[in-house]
Sequence to fold (251 residues):
Amino acid sequence: MKLFNLEGKVAVVTGAVTGLGQGMAVGLAQAGADIVSIGIGSHEETGRQVQALGRRFLALEANLMGIGSIDTMLEKVVAAVGRIDILVNNAGIIRRADALEFTEEDWDDVLNLNLKTVFFFSQAVAKQFIRQGSGGKIINIASMLSFQGGIRVPSYTASKSGVMGLTRLMANEWAKHSIQVNAIAPGYMDTANTAPIKADSKRSAEILERIPAGRWGLPGDLAGPVIFLASAASDYVNGYTLAVDGGWLAR
Fold:
């Protein structure tokens, strides 16, 4: 099990205050990593769970809709915990409207956080990995809509398709620095983002009917995949997007 051991590693997780980000942060802590949570909202519950596992926890409040504070944030992280070994680009938003009515504001907000910030955060962390000289792991959060078109979420579909492409691009360029860049594509997960869909009984039933596992995913379902991609077990896996979807794409 040494392959999956993250003791002594520091993982930065964006959007870890709740939902999938919290589930992945706690999973990484269970494998031994110290956690840095960056994003908006109360980090208290995530911190409580991480510290209960005997791991260090650092929370930084930051609005990741813009990229201006990224370098300053990472300087604070390194000053506080010494290094960075893992980055999980989880923070993201979704806006829903028919494509014929979709606004420029909803387009820009989603692309800025879901794609632009993902790239420039990754770029800054990759530079830190190179300074440290010991490689590192970057894990992006893609989506089923990295593979499919979906409906009523044009900017989200564009951003998550872009995340899968950027994952490949960064993997190609940074592999020579012993940096692995991969992505997780969650299926239909029980989170705040999907609450409007779950509230629509007809739509929810249609979704469940297509998922071979017969249930919505939970944040804890991402713990194993993120540990794998963050650990030495995945050292020869690079540029891949792993679907964690209960079999959705297999249908």
